[in-house]
Amino acid sequence: MTSTPTASPGKRGKPLAEALLVFFAFAIFTTLGIVCWFGAYLFWPYGIYFTTHTAWAFWVLAALAPVVPVVLRMLRDRLDLNLHGVQPVLVLATVYIVKSAAVAIPAAGRVPPQDEAAFPPAEMAAPEDASRFDFAFAGDIHTPNEHTRALIEQAVGIHEESPLAGFFLLGDNMPEEPFEETIPWSFEEPFAPLLDRGIPFYGVLGNHDYSGDLVEDQINYPLFNMEGRRWYSRTFGNGLVTFFILDTEAIIETPEQLFWLRDRLAADTSRWRIILTHKPLIFHEGQRGIRAPLSRHLARVIHENGGVDLFIAGHLHHYERFDYKGIKHLVVSASSELNRNPRNPNEEYIVRDTRQRAMGHLTVTHDRLDFRAFGEFNQTVDEFTVETPTRRSAAQYSMR
Fold first, then answer.
1. How far is 76 from 82, CA to CA, in rounded Å?
2. How far is Cα 245 from Cα 310, in angstroms, rounded to an integer?
C-alpha cells in the first residue's frame, strides 16, 4: 500500500505567511495612498508635502501586491529560474524605493520662482500713465460658436468707446486637440476683430488645458502673453491695478505659487488688486472648484496679506456673483457652452443667471471699479461698483 504524501506543517505555513505579508503590503500601500491624497489638501503648506502623484504611486504598489507572488511563481515554475530566495515583499520594497526617487517631492525641492520672462510682455492698448483702464474677461471658450462671436462683437463695441487695455481668458481656452491644428480656428480667427485692434490677451490655465496636454503650448504662445509661466502678475497704470493670475490645476503639486502669491501680495502697493483663476476659490455644495481645505489655505494667504478687491474665475459655464468675507467673487464662464442646470442654488448669491451667455467688462479708475457682465445683444446681465479698496488685516479675518 502506498501512502499519499502530505505537506509538512512548515511547508503549509510558508504560503500562509507569504499571503499574510502580501495582504499587509496591500493594506499599507492603500492606506499610504489615502493619506497622501487627502494630506495634499489637509496639510499644505505646513512642511508636509504630500502630493496626488505620490498617492497614485502608492495605489499602484497596492495593486501590484497580489500580482507579484503570481509572477514570481510563474517565473520559478515555467522558466525554471532560481528565485526561491526572492520574496514578494522585497520586490515591492524595491519598487517603492524607485518610486520614492522618481516621484516623491521633498519640501526642500520647491522650484524657485521664475524671474526671467520668455519674451517681452505685450504693448498695452492704453498708455501706462492713463487715468482709466478697461479690461474684458471670458472663460471656457473651448469651441467658440455663434454666441461667442456675438459676444466678441459687443467687446469690439466696448473697445471703440473706451480702448481695452487687456482681455483675460479665464482657462479652458481651447479644445483638447493638437495646438497647431486648433489655435487658428479656436482663437485667432474668432478673436481677430480684437487682435487686429491691438488688444493684448492674457491666458489663465484651466483643467481642460491640462487634460488636453496644452500647457506648454499655451504658456509659450506669444498671443497669450504668459511669458512661459503658469502663474504670473500684471500691473497697469503705474500701480493703479495689479492682476495676480494663478494656476488652480497645479496648485497642490506646485505649492511654491502660493508662496509667490503671499510674497507678492505682501509687497504690493497697487491701488486695486484682483486675482484671476480658472476654478473658483469658494464652491458651494454640488459645484466644482478648488477643493475645500485648499480653498481655506488660499483664502488665508489672501487675507493675511491685505486681501484683494475682486476674485474672478471661470469653470462653471455660467455667470454668478457673490460676496465672501469682504471680497466680491465672480464666475465669468458663459462665453461658449452654457450650463443650464445649476445645482443647489445658494441664498448667498447676489446674481446667478444661467439663461444668458456673458462676458465681463471692468473699468478701473483711482476712485472705483465698475464691472458689467454683458450679453450677446449688449444687454446688461449684471453690474456693480466697488468704491473702497479692500485692505483687511488677518485679525479681521476668521477661518471657518
1. 6
2. 12
Distance, in Å, from the CA atom of 354 to the CA atom of 319, rounded to the nearest integer, reads 6
Q: Which three cell numbers stand for residue 308?
A: 484683494
How far CA 368 is from CA of 49, 274, 345, 365, 387, in Å, comes to 41, 13, 30, 5, 4
Angle between helical axes of 292-304 and 256-267 (0-180°, round to 10): 20
Quickly list DSSP for 316-342: SSSEEEEEETTEEEEEE-BSSS-----
Give 314-327 pLDDT, tens digit per residue: 988 888 888 877 78
Dist CA 316 CA 354 (whole Å): 10
Closest CA to 201 of 167, 234, 247: 167
For the chain, the helix, strand and coil percentages under 3-state DSSP, each to the nearest 5: 40, 20, 45
The pLDDT of residue 395 is 45
Q: How far apart are CA 255 and CA 41, in angstroms?
A: 11
The cell numbers describing 356, all together, are: 444668458
* Residue 21, pLDDT above cutoff 60: yes
Could you identify the residue written with the cell 465672501?
324
| pLDDT tens-place string over residues 159-205 | 999 999 999 999 999 988 899 999 999 999 999 999 999 999 999 99
Residue 110 and residue 253 in contact, taking contact as beta carbons nearer than 8 Å: no
> What digits encode the pLDDT tens for the residues 50-109?
556 677 777 887 888 777 777 766 766 666 555 455 455 566 666 666 555 444 443 333
366-383: b or e for each residue (b if 16 or more CB lie within 10 Å)? Answer: eeebbbbbbbbeeeebbe
* Angle, helices 52-64/67-78, rounded to nearest 10 degrees: 40
Q: Per-domain residue ranges for the chain?
A: 13-107, 133-396
**Angle at the Cα of 272 from the Cα atoms of 271 and 275, rounded to 5 degrees:** 150
Domain 133-396 fold? Purple Acid Phosphatase; chain A, domain 2 (3.60.21)
- CB 158 within 8 Å of CB 136: yes
Three-state DSSP class for 201?
Answer: strand
